[in-house]
């Protein structure tokens, strides 16, 4: 029995010492380096003063041919994420600054997909969804885009596309089957 008592005392002593021993401080988890995507260099914004063509409200309201059907407005265009040609079409879509004298043929439903220039031809691509209107509206959209873009040295003619494909018309009234030059 003496052996059992000594054994129990020894066990109690070992357990007591183990309980009183200093504990290891928990180590914070090792942070692995995070591979963050490299920042893309900032796109340089450019500004250019351009001549934009808009509908003449007097002509639109009266139909009187003594008035020019389109007038010009000089606007300062900022671009960089997109090309100048696309920025011009987007400015035409936004409309003129002088809304008393000028208007645009574009409605809010018309969606521009892209503008690309290749060998002097600007390919202006619209989504078919929301692309509807009368013949006057269609003629203004085509006229505004062609006259405004061909003011640039980079554009001699405009080819309109619908959903990336050549089409017969934009809105069912005027042929856009080939590239269109300024009037």
Helix vs. strand class: alpha+beta
Shape: globular
Please give the alpha-carbon distance between the first and last residues: 120 Å
Instruction: Show unreliable segments.
Output: 7-15
* Main sheet record: 5 strands, mixed
The total tally of domains equals 1
What amount of the residues lies in strands? 25-35%
Task: Report on this structure.
The structure is a single chain. With 183 residues, this protein is α+β, with helices and mostly antiparallel strands. It has one domain. 28% of the residues lie in helices and 25% in strands. It has helices at 2-20, 57-62, 84-94, 135-149; strands at 46-56, 70-79, 102-103, 112-118, 121-126, 157-162, 165-166, 180-181. The strands form two sheets. Strands 4, 5, 6, 7 and 8 form a five-stranded mixed sheet that branches. It has a three-stranded antiparallel sheet with strand order 2-1-3. Helix 3 (84-94) packs antiparallel against helix 4. The protein is globular and about 75 Å long. The N and C termini lie far apart (120 Å).
